[in-house]
């Protein structure tokens, strides 16, 4: 079983990376193989809306996202970690999820994976990012695990917040147990209802 942790902060070794790492420690303790992928220093360009991926299943933009696609496909559970930037997820997180349009053909390739969310804010505006990521989990027919809403500002300060560190650890363990349950979304709906939009506009 593989659990992938995505840290969508541009700040290297920051609070998001620490919490996602702690969740992965919990998952590893529970028996999973784990991998942390930090977007810090990586180039993930925004989706350019060409829609060719809906025909080919591949994104034509050649950057660090190409490595992420493979990791997402291979994972049984995915943790989406983001700091809060102006009451929202980071632009790095948004670019990454937009680029996963390429994983909606053939079928929804993220379906049946367990999704967890970790968001870190200095003080305010955490819930919208969590809701947005949960909605993303839902439309990909993934299984939602719990979320961690954590608070810290200075780099590394989250380590002192025992409650949030514990919550992250428990999220990792929980995800392993959820994956073990073997959820399967009914295959009758494997294209997802948004596919009808693509049909309508002949994309
Ligand atoms: C551009 C920018 C915008 C931010 N906006 C918010 C915000 O709206 N609310 C908040 O509570 N903290 C905000 N913060 C603080 C970060 O969420 C906080 O420092 C967090 O711990 C950063 O996580 P990281 O160490 O993983 O990068 C902002 C930080 C930056 C750099």
How is this fold's topology laid out?
Layout: E1 2-7, H1 15-29, E2 33-38, H2 53-56, H3 65-74, E3 77-83, H4 91-99, E4 114-121, H5 127-139, E5 143-151, H6 162-180, H7 195-200
Helix pairs in contact: 1-6
The structure holds flavin mononucleotide.
Low-confidence stretches: none
Q: How many extended strands?
A: 5
Radius of gyration: 16 Å
Give the class from helix and strand content and strand pairing: alpha/beta
CA-to-CA gap between the ends? Answer: 35 Å
**Biggest β-sheet description:** 5 strands, parallel
Give average pLDDT, whole number: 95
Q: What is the number of helical segments per DSSP (H or I, 4+ residues)?
A: 7
The best one-word shape is globular
Order of helices and strands: EHEHHEHEHEHH
Strand residue percentage: 15-25%
Proportion in helices:
25-40%
Small molecules (ligands, ions, cofactors) in the structure = flavin mononucleotide
Biggest sheet strand order reads: 2-1-3-4-5
What do you see in this structure?
It contains seven helices and five strands; from the N terminus they run βαβααβαβαβαα. α1 packs across α6. The chain is α/β, with parallel strands linked by helices and 203 residues long. Strands 2-1-3-4-5 form a five-stranded parallel β-sheet, sandwiched between helices. 37% of the residues lie in helices and 18% in strands. 40% of the residues are buried. The longest helix is centred in the C-terminal third of the chain and has 19 residues. Flavin mononucleotide binds next to α1 and β4.
């Amino acid at each position: 079983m593989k659990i992938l942790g995505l840290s969508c902060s541009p700040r290297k070794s920051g609070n998001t990376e620490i919490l996602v790492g702690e969740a992965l420690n919990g998952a590893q303790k529970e028996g999973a193989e784990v991998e942390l992928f930090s977007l810090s220093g990586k180039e993930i360009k925004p989706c350019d809306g060409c829609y060719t991926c809906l025909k080919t299943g591949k994104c034509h933009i050649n950057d660090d996202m190409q490595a992420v696609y493979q990791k997402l496909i291979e994972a049984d559970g995915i943790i989406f970690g983001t700091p809060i930037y102006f009451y929202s997820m980071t632009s790095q997180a948004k670019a990454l999820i937009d680029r996963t349009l390429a994983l909606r053909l053939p079928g929804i390739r993220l379906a049946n994976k367990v999704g967890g969310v970790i968001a870190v804010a200095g003080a305010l505006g955490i819930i919208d990012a969590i809701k947005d990521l949960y909605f993303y989990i839902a439309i990909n027919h993934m299984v939602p695990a719990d979320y961690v809403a954590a608070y810290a500002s200075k780099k590394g300060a989250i380590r002192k917040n025992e409650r949030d560190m514990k919550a992250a650890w428990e999220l990792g363990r929980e995800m392993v147990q959820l994956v073990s349950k073997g959820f399967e979304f009914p295959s009758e709906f494997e294209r997802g209802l948004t596919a009808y939009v693509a049909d309508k506009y002949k994309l």
